[in-house]
Amino acid sequence: MSNERGSWGSNIGFLLAAIGSAVGLGNIWGFPYKMGKSGGFTFLLIYLLLAIFVGFSIMMAELAMGRRTGKGTIGAYKELTSRFKWVGWLAVFAPFVIMSFYSVLGGYCIEYMALNLSNLAFAGAEVKTGADLFGAMLTNPFGCVMFTLLFMIICYLINRGGISGGIEKFNNVGMPALFVMLVIIIIRSLTLPGAVEGLKFMFVPGYAVEAGFIESAPSIGSVMATAGGQMFFSLSLAMGVMITYGSYLGKKENLVKNAAVIVFADTVVALMAGLAVIPAAVATYGPSAALSGPKLLFITLQDVFQTMGSVGSLFGVIFYLLVLVAAISSAISLVEVVVTFFMDRAAAKGKTGSRSRVVLLVCLAIMVEATIVAVDGLGSNGVWVPFQNSLGVVGSFNDCWLDFMDCLSEGLAMPLGALLMSIMVGWEIGSKTVLEEIHQGNSVKWVDGFLTFCLMFVVPLAMAFILGGQIGDYFSTSERSMYGVGYGVGAFVVVAAWLAAFTSPKRKARKGK
Q: How confident is the model over 101-113, as a mean pLDDT?
């Protein structure tokens, strides 16, 4: 497809870029831990069902929206809908805010890779524990800002090259390299004494409770909310990436096949990441191991590498390079969502936007917000956080700037955007709009009924449940549960969105009223 903004050099390049966007830090420290604590295979089964009926449907719709309009997120919504055109702003707001902490975590990966390189070069020197290294890093704001800046410079150089010359080129090398590095770490992880306990943690239902990793078994509702949240965020849905990437995709490409490949590949890589990190952590620490969040990557696994002796630093370099590649592949897709908005805006005014200048300004804006998160040091440096201790509600969402930004983007904007998008497509403009675009790639006919049913009923209800769960997770405290409020908000949003869709001029025109 000819596109003044550029286009993918090949479908393989698009797939690798889309998979790279989906494969990120959340896969490496989130998926394996959530799988283990939520019942092992039970979690995996629910995750796969949600990925098929919710994730696959949303991904097809977003790719079709982008390719049909040939525009980024905001432009696509404005062209397709009358009542929900403002939803596009949520899908630009979310990636911009996510980058405020994603870039900081990427900087941490660069710093740890450098530390392990130093240990490798100066064998025999005194080596600090992972906790000491992590604590020293967090309480050094200047160092965190500098490594965050280095990460953003890498993103700038890649995004400046454009879709084919930058993002596609990086992922054509980065994704195969990531796979090879994962295999190397998996082999070392599974050959450690006691690694089988980590496999049981991940795959045996109830073993996390039996072995003392968690206190009690989660309810089926909790497992569904956890699996749904992980599936939703892991696949880069409702953050504008798939709409943006779809807008650069050729008309002959099969969207159904592409969406299926992305969902499958992301799930496989998530499982591989689990095999790479959890058995090693459990083999070294047992039930006392920190298995989730930054502590897993920067404390637990750093200590694991140090227990391997001199060769451990080599595996540390490989591992943190692997995590860095995953972080970059996701970060450049988030940056591209915002860049495409400004490029399209210039084109709408009859101007030709300078990609280098736009990318530079976007990266500088991200650096400003990222500096706040970097200086905060995950709450280690006493920086003021919005709504901290507000009204006596002390929850995870306001412990530090990273949690606050995460709440705004992944906790609220993304699930809300996906819920509204599904109702917009399913009930206002009609699924026929996206199906016409999907069939241009010679897709099979069975997808018509499947996608229509999922977007009209399954996705809105599932997203309302996930939105409620996210509100409950972020705002609940040890003294107060907010899950009831969260599910109430989810139900209210569904009803309000359905009413807006039913009374929309677009729907009335489509129905001939």
A: 96
Strand runs labelled E in 188-277: none
Rounded distance, CA 133 to CA 78, Å? 48
pTM over 0.90: yes
Find the largest Cα–Cα distance for the chain.
80
**The residue type at 479:** E
* Distance (Å, whole) CA 250 – CA 344: 18
**Domain 11-391 CATH superfamily:** Hydantoin permease (1.10.4160.10)
Three-class SS state of 498: helix
Distance CA 264, CA 471 (A): 28
Beta strands in 12-155 (DSSP E): none
Residue 354's CB is within 10 A of a number of other CB atoms, namely 12
Query: How far is the C-alpha of 366 from the C-alpha of 385, rounded, in Å?
Result: 18
In 3-state terms, what secondary structure has residue 363? Answer: helix
Contact 320, 113 (CB under 8 A): yes
The DSSP letter of residue 217 is P
pLDDT digits (tens, 9 = 90+) for 125-164: 566 788 899 999 999 999 999 999 999 999 999 999 999 9
Alpha carbon distance, N-terminus to C-terminus of the chain = 36
Per-position DSSP letters for 381-412, written without gaps between them: T----TTTTGGG---GGGSSHHHHHHIIIIII
Distance CA 421, CA 109 (A): 34
d(CA 111, CA 98): 20
Check if the beta carbon of residue 475 is closer than 8 Å to that of residue 393: yes
Task: For helices 310-348 and 141-160, give the axis angle rounded to 10 degrees.
Answer: 60
157-181 pLDDT, tens digit per residue, is 999 999 999 999 999 999 999 999 9
pLDDT digits (tens, 9 = 90+) for 291-308: 888 888 899 999 999 888
Tokens (6 digits) for 353 = 């936007």
Pick from 201, 237, 271: nearest CA to 48 = 271
Q: Which long-range contacts (CB under 8 A, 24 or more apart) does 354-357 make?
A: 355/160, 355/162, 356/160
